[in-house]
Design a protein that fits this description.
Keywords: Signal. The chain is of the alpha+beta class. The chain is built from 1 helix and 7 strands, in the order αβββββββ.
Length: about 140
């Protein structure tokens, strides 16, 4: 009786394992993504550095898509361009803005026909200096 129960349990376990493998294989054959958390669209964040001397750009994109990162000024003059290959899914870059004059700028992310723009303004605060004079 014990042998019959063990054999029956083993047969059910093997059928369940085989069924799970067939279902997973069928899902892959139907084109379901193997990584459901992978981004399906370009996601980006643009933020200043703590010292205010650089602008950070963080990008996540699906594999298989080429992306162009551009920085332009308010007259639409191209200041920087970089192409991110289709095999890269995550990218970080830092733009040093210390040498740029005060004004309005944009970071553009061009993905085929889609363009995502992140605007920022550079402005310099006047320096306050103080002198100490001593009388003798």
């Amino acid at each position: 009786m014990k042998i019959l129960v063990k054999s029956l349990f083993l047969a059910i376990a093997l059928i369940a394992a085989f069924s799970a493998i067939v279902i997973m294989t069928a899902g892959a054959a139907q084109g379901r993504p193997t990584n459901p958390t992978a981004p399906t669209a370009v996601r980006s964040a643009v933020f200043p550095s703590a010292a205010g001397k650089a602008v950070n750009v963080v990008i996540e994109k699906p594999a298989g898509q080429t992306l162009v990162v551009r920085m332009v000024d308010k007259q639409n003059h191209l200041l920087f361009t970089q192409t991110i290959s289709k095999n890269v899914t995550s990218h970080r870059t830092k733009f040093n803005v210390e040498e740029l004059t005060d004004g309005n700028y944009e970071i553009e992310l061009v993905n085929g026909q889609e363009v995502s723009r992140h605007s920022f303004t550079l402005s310099t605060l006047p320096q306050v200096s103080r002198t100490i004079s001593m009388e003798q």
